[in-house]
Amino acid sequence: MATAAAAAKGFLAMLLVAAALCSNAARAQTPVFACDASNATLAGYGFCDRSASAAVRAADLLRRLTLAEKVGFLVNKQAALPRLGIPAYEWWSEALHGVSYVGPGTRFSPLVPGATSFPQPILTAASFNASLFRAIGEVVSNEARAMHNVGLAGLTFWSPNINVFRDPRWGRGQETPGEDPLLASKYAAGYVAGLQDAGGGVGGDALKVAACCKHYTAYDVDSWKGVERFTFDAVVSQQDLQDTFQPPFKSCVIDGNVASVMCSYNKVNGKPTCADKDLLSGVIRGDWKLNGYIVSDCDSVDVLYNQQHYTKSPEDAAAITIKSGLDLNCGNFLAQHTVAAVQAGKLSESDVDRAVTNNFIVLMRLGYFDGDPRKLPFGGLGPKDVCTSSNQELAREAARQGIVLLKNSGALPLSAKSIRSMAVIGPNANASFTMIGNYEGTPCKYTTPLQGLGANVATVYRPGCTNVGCSGNSLQLSAATQAAATADVTVLVVGADQSIERESLDRTSLLLPGQQPQLVSAVANASRGPVILVIMSGGPFDISFAKSSGKISAILWVGYPGEAGGAALADILFGYHNPSGRLPVTWYPASFADKVPMTDMRMRPDPSAGYPGRTYRFYTGDTVYAFGDGLSYTNFAHHLVSAPKQVALPLAEGHTCYTEHCLSVEAAGDHCGSLAFDVHLRVRNAGKMAGRHTVLLFSSPPSVHNAPAKHLLGFEKVSLEPGQSGVVAFTVDVCKDLSVVDELGIRKVALGSHTLHVGDLKHTLNLRV
Length: 769
Fold this sequence. Notes:
Blueprint: H1 2-27, H2 40-43, H3 54-63, H4 67-71, E1 77-78, E2 89-90, H5 121-125, H6 130-149, H7 181-196, E3 213-216, E4 223-224, E5 227-228, E6 233-234, H8 238-245, H9 247-254, E7 260-263, E8 267-268, E9 271-272, H10 278-287, E10 293-296, H11 300-306, H12 314-324, H13 333-343, H14 349-365, H15 389-402, E11 404-408, E12 422-425, H16 449-454, E13 459-462, H17 477-486, E14 489-495, H18 516-526, E15 531-536, H19 544-547, E16 554-557, H20 565-573, H21 590-595, H22 615-618, E17 636-642, E18 646-648, E19 664-666, E20 676-685, E21 691-700, E22 711-720, E23 725-733, H23 734-737, E24 739-741, E25 747-750, E26 752-758, E27 761-768
Parallel strand pairs: 3-7, 6-8, 7-10, 12-13, 12-14, 14-15, 15-16, 18-27
Antiparallel strand pairs: 1-2, 4-5, 8-9, 11-16, 17-20, 19-25, 20-23, 21-22, 21-26, 24-25, 26-27
């Protein structure tokens, strides 16, 4: 039956596409796809010649266009050009954690009613599994191409969000890979490669879909106490810019070979990012050699004129953004004002040509100008390839790998056979839509926490609060405490949703919303059996009361775990899978939000002003839970197998550091070359349960240039049976991994003692000339 249904669905898809083609031909309207091979006129156009390079084809198309027509290719809603057989195209689609309906370029229909909804990136990042990042990207791009082939999606997806989660109150932190620049960099490169990689047989420069890393740069304030992202000026030192904010974008472009970067709404040091030539043409395209296009965040060109008042006229705004390196405007501003800007002499037509050419080349690499997509690579993908059982299982596996066990007094894992009744309580206990976060699509299906737990044991459900706001009117304490008092075990699922944290909404408090703390405490005090507290959220909370409570046996953080979140939670609680997730962000005490303005962009502490710094790399205050925290149901032991104690930098003869005392040397030049060493660790599962172990390698550099207290050098995932050992190897690139950024924003290799950390294991090596 399943095979027949899939075949019928595929046949229906072909009928619908064929019907669309025939209908358009009959009405002599714009074509469904460019460069239709059945049209003899189009066959003679150079831009339709698949044997030519993308640059040659783009140049041929460009010479056939008027200025007014060129300007139509500067905006996301690309108008049709019937005389050249080019259909309308919508550039804006989203795929943050699955194909999304948020962008107008993608929609669902009875043909493809949903797509696989993976966990929000903040939870996927908690897996610290680079191969998983890529695997998710590959599935998302398969489903995207399948939808494109039946006219439901575009080919350009403005994902991922790789901003560093600098402040715990940020509403969009849920969309990011967390607070560490290396983790964000690895996530960016992995997810982008999964989305874009067309495979060796298609062509080296071909794209499966085009990803976009956003929001460039130093963007992490949306709406906080009257400060809005549209007008916020992020004042950032060159040291912090190069050390924290830029590395994920650099990695995305250089390592991930991303096809696009999106500039952000905010200003950085007084300049709107979309009008900053140094940041766009200088860094992204010049230093990093972007092979693709630069797009604005939606309406940000309009914003820099109408809200930031950065230019005197709309023509000036069009001119400065295009000349700075912007290629595509999400919005209509450039369509409205670019021709006038050229006519006024503020912008040359060659500037427009450069931008449009960058856009065309990406479309060429995607096969957009290669004719019928069903006859191209990936043309066999269709509705049958969306929401497959293997795709849905990967969504469940991603959630399992990301879920973080923060406390366990021995209650976990649970034994389903010994539980006669389980109380499932909390405003997120039966969450469905909440689990998929924002920038979501319609999921294949939902498994809520209640459903996942109920598939294993008998449950009694009491929400406790009617919503996560948990105000006095919505609190339902009596029913919740009664259920806990009679159950063998109680699972409380609390936290947040998009009414608490989202785009355009930052938090002002780090406490659980409303009367959730009262609900948790009352239920814990009334409970007859163990109490398991589950936090469903993007950002961290101060749950010190629960951490220290003897009434609460275990605490887990599950992020926004995607469509299979409830099933994954049950897999962890009942011990079918051993938790291995680690926190990708610091969990601060509530006092942090009271003392530290969200708008203070400084990463490093300032003791004289009582400023504690930000993220585990620099923060000097107390934590509720630390970056990298996460427990397992078993114990793992680490043993250093090999690592050098001395590493010498082979500086050029006559270098001043041979005769003078140097704190650091440049992290570039011949002395860097292939200077690297290996660290080998033996990891042993010393417990009684099989499990994955997340190995995090940190380094504490010498105290020079206001260096981080420690920073992440690498991470690996290893699976071990009880009693089994395995060797984990890290290759440390001296100039890349052991360098720090100095006060001028220049990367330097710090000389002296570097301490490597893995868990409680420490090893010191001396870096010298």
